[in-house]
Q: What sequence folds into this?
């Protein structure tokens, strides 16, 4: 003990600073700030949650889009906000939007009023649903304005979306949930514009938090293709926000630091032209 105190005194005496590693900054690429009729947390509370979790940027979308506008209005150096236009008014739209003639009216009106949108989504779309005329219209709208898409979709729907818009940049919400890593890799190789977002993605690490070898290899082979997300689709996700975003850190720490940094933050900086 005596020596420890002596060592500390020497450190202070010599002006040596103890350097504590800064936690990696995080980007949350799947943030819903739903507003129906009131959000779970105020914007002030949300900012405090982001700061506490080390989240320095978010991909914001909400149902209806009022929540996104509210978050965009409080963006700052400490919290960069990437707004996406959600094609939903109420929860039930999740099931029907792709066959609803009102969808394009919503998208066009929102975009006309708030031209700052960077993309459209998150939207839910599976299999043959992607062949609907409304989806074709939405994709054409995105293509003409170089907007990204944020798709909660299976492989079949992604194949159709990319056939409509081969140069699309599509953020793949949940990365197929439990789709085998080899299939995920096949998709990444097939579609250079596909970026895999990892909320609710199972199979990355085991019960003790150890990363599985196949996912480690996937991240190391394609470090520029992944994003993290919270998916605050229900209030309960806001209540556990710190835990959810913090839950990525144990497996990130098992990756080479450069790879971890890209997935946590760097890929979002590049994709959305953020301030690093
Ligand atoms: Zn979602």
A:
């Amino acid at each position: 003990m005596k020596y420890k105190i002596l060592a500390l005194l020497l450190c202070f005496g010599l002006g040596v600073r103890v350097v504590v590693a800064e936690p990696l900054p995080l980007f949350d690429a799947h943030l819903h700030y739903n507003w129906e009729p009131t959000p779970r947390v105020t914007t002030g509370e949300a900012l405090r949650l982001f700061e506490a979790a080390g989240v320095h940027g978010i991909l914001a979308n909400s149902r209806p889009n009022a929540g996104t506008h509210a978050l965009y209005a409080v963006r700052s150096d400490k919290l960069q906000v990437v707004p996406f236009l959600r094609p939903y008014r109420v929860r039930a739209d999740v099931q029907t939007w792709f066959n609803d003639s009102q969808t394009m009216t919503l998208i066009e009106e929102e975009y006309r009023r708030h031209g700052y949108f960077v993309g459209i989504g998150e939207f839910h779309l599976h299999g043959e649903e992607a062949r609907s005329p409304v989806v074709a219209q939405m994709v054409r709208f995105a293509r003409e304005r170089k907007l990204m898409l944020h798709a909660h979709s299976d492989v079949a729907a992604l194949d159709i979306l990319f056939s409509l818009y081969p140069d699309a940049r599509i953020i793949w919400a949940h990365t197929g949930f439990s789709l085998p890593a080899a299939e995920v890799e096949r998709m990444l190789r097939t579609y250079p514009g596909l970026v895999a977002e990892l909320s609710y993605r199972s199979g990355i690490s085991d019960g003790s938090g150890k990363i599985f070898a196949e996912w480690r290899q996937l991240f190391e082979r394609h470090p520029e293709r992944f994003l993290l997300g919270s998916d605050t689709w229900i209030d309960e996700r806001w209540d556990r926000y710190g835990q959810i975003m913090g839950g990525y850190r144990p497996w990130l720490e098992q990756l080479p630091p450069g790879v971890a940094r890209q997935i946590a933050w760097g890929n979002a900086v590049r994709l959305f032209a953020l301030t690093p």
